[in-house]
Amino acid sequence: MSRSSFIFTSESVSEGHPDKICDRISDAVVDRFLKADAHAKVACETLVTTNQIVLAGEVRARELISHEELEEVARRCVREIGYEQDGFHWQTANILNFIHEQSADIYQGVREDEGAGDQGIMFGYACSETEDFMPAPIYLSHRILQQMAEARRAGDTPQLGPDSKSQVTLRYENGKPVGAKSVVVSTQHRDDVSTEQVREIVRGFVNDVLPSGWMCDDEELYVNPTGRFVIGGPDGDAGLTGRKIIVDTYGGMAPHGGGAFSGKDPSKVDRSAAYAARYLAKNVVAAGLAEQCSIQLAYAIGVAKPLSVYCDLYGTGQVSEAKLEQVLPQVMDLSPRGIRDHLELRRPIYERTAAYGHFGRKPEVDGGFSWERMDLSERLKAELT
């Protein structure tokens, strides 16, 4: 963004949002296959509506998982999210499973040592606005809902249900966020809880998450603006895998290639190359080479090398963007296989990514969120300064 003073808004949705239920189930299916076969090819889509869960997609693996076990995977996800409603209950929901073997034509192009699983463009982004190198509006939107979910699951807020959304609008001055102009939170709640009670509960979470002095005016805090939100989750709205791609990434602050992540094994560059682009962008900013960095990668199905590498430092760079474009493929093998190996993506680490963003998370000891590591920053500095 070239403007130095502006207002920007990002939104998040909770793990109990119908689309996020689908993302989680789809990623849990991916994890189950990767646990059995690290080289499994999986593409899983999920649909949910009133007491219905539908699985569809294709797989290729040394060990096929039974329909009964995949059904238990789906029920576990719903149970852990917290759905025990008449219209959507982990025990009573009807599950239809249409997952089948992968097409031989697709397999021909994506064999393990061959190229990308599909054509496409992927973007990664990082900035210095937060300690996790994420844009502040989406970072804060996620944190509000994360804290609400943690309190609900701990039994501290039994008044609230699993389905919720947040939206944070920040004021920027001289290119930096300085405070909240408005905050919107809509959350499912019990029928016997008043709108004012919900507002007071939510206000506490917003106050805790926003930096000191950033709270918006009281009239700009919108909590359940329609007044009631009792019927929620798939009983109130159908959900599908892959419909929250901007929530999953940078809240609209950066470009998005269009492909969703959830339900796809790491041979699909929609997922793995987007992770690689974030990894590289974060290391560029962590190395002090820019305050903002966007990286685009492009691929063709069956072709190993990226067709293009493009960088934009938004006028904040300490190095040449053209030089950076030359160096990035030297410090990391950007073939699909090279990405999977470098970031160790063949592990069952994807269910945890399904809610509250795939980026801006902490790297975990078992390899989860490996793309959030900053272990390339010193090498980048050495190559570019």
Query: Strand order, biggest sheet?
Result: 1-8-9-10
Structural class comes to alpha+beta
The pLDDT mean sits at 94
Principal-axes geometry comes out as: flat
Distance between the termini: 25 Å
> What integer value in Å does the Rg equal?
21 Å
Q: Report the total helices.
A: 10
Poorly predicted spans: none
Largest sheet: 4 strands, mixed
Helix amount? 25-40%
What fraction of the residues are assigned to beta strands by DSSP? 15-25%
Number of strands: 13
**What is the succession of H and E elements?**
EHEEHEEEHEHEEHEEHHEEHHH
Explained architecture:
The protein is α+β, with helices and mostly antiparallel strands. Helix content is about 30%, strand content about 25%. The chain has a four-stranded mixed β-sheet. It has a four-stranded mixed β-sheet with strand order 6-3-2-11, with helices on one face. A three-stranded antiparallel β-sheet has the order 7-12-13. The radius of gyration is 21 Å and the shape is flat.
Quick synopsis:
The chain has 385 residues and is α+β, with helices and mostly antiparallel strands. The protein is built from ten helices and 13 strands.
